[in-house]
Design brief:
Layout lengths: L4 E4 L5 H15 L9 H15 L1 E7 L2 E9 L2 E7 L8 H10 L4 E7 L3 H8 L4 E5 L11 E7 L4 H9 L1
């Protein structure tokens, strides 16, 4: 299996992350409207994502394979180059993000069956579905949540307290 590494993103990574986000959305989510230009995508990552989120990258050499962006207990972005789907990149990024949290929530589009299977197979549970009226794309979406399962003495104190 090809090797890749994970690392925390830095501001210089923004153009590559914004570009990968656009490429993956176009390739894997063709039903979404194209609401922004590439320049607007870059501004979004520069003004919103990078300043407020923990962003992790998966790379093979100098090639960006995927990224995850999380803030507090929300995973806002997890995108992997389609050529690298099924090769452990998404799982590694998700694990890196979950390792730092006790709970993680996310939204995905209801039509994104691949993402829904991915998250459900990794312990996320469906919390709610919407008609999409509250998201920018106006596409029905689904709220998922993962909660760390405590074991040993930690679990007893949570269950009894």
């Amino acid at each position: 299996m090809p090797r890749f590494t994970l690392r925390a993103a830095c501001p210089a990574d923004m153009p590559a992350v914004a570009g990968l986000n656009r490429r993956v959305r176009n390739a894997c989510l063709p039903y979404l409207p194209d609401l922004h230009t590439p320049d607007e995508d870059l501004v979004f990552f520069q003004a919103t994502v990078f300043p407020t989120s923990e962003v992790w990258l998966a790379e093979a050499g100098a090639q960006l394979l995927g990224f995850a962006a999380a803030r507090l207990d929300w995973l806002d972005h997890l995108y992997v180059d389609p050529a690298w789907h099924g090769r452990g990149v998404g799982s590694a990024l998700l694990s890196c993000t979950r390792d730092r949290r006790c709970e993680l929530n996310l939204w995905t589009f209801q039509a994104n069956a691949q993402a829904r299977r991915f998250y459900e197979s990794r312990g996320f549970r469906l919390i709610a579905v919407t008609d999409g009226s509250s998201n920018e794309e106006r596409c029905p979406d689904a709220h998922y949540r993962w909660v760390r399962q405590l074991s040993g003495p930690d679990r007893r104190s949570v269950l009894s307290g």
